[in-house]
Amino acid sequence: MNEIRFYTLASEIEDELRKIRELLRENEEACHRINQGERFDFLSLRGQGDIIHDFYTGFEKILKKIATDLNGGLSSGEDWHKRLLYQMSFEIKEIRPAVISQESYGILKKLLAFRHVFRNIYGFDLDKERLDELSLLLLEKGDDLIKELLDFAELLRKGDEK
Q1: What is the number of domains present in the chain?
Q2: What is this structure's pTM?
Q3: What is residue 78's three-state secondary structure?
Q4: Which end of the chain has fewer CB atoms at under 10 Å, N or C?
Q5: Which residues have CB under 8 Å from 45's CB, separation 6+?
């Protein structure tokens, strides 16, 4: 019975990661265009923000699913987003290993902070330097974040061999 649950969760993680990989491709193209000196206007700024927002949101979907299926649910309260990230960064004995490393936890905290800003300000108030910094972070570390979750999905497929 648990095998089916673990295989299903692993497949759901992998499906979401396919979408997140597309966001990395879009981010890479956006960074390339910016580096080539293409015109950068308000639509480019908003688009860059949207890619970063969607990247984090995709990761959060996966972490929520893990918390629901393995941890017994999500924390309540206004800070549940922060607590979710924190909980995924450590092992829960007899339940699951850490889902993300401490380095990934730090990166995802930065993306969560941006996601909060992105949802609560007008697009014309976005900070281009901050967007460039986060886009570069995704360019440099996005594949590593994805690999950690792929490794976790593989561990789920192994079942009780934790």
Answers
A1: 1
A2: 0.90
A3: coil
A4: N
A5: 123, 126, 128, 131
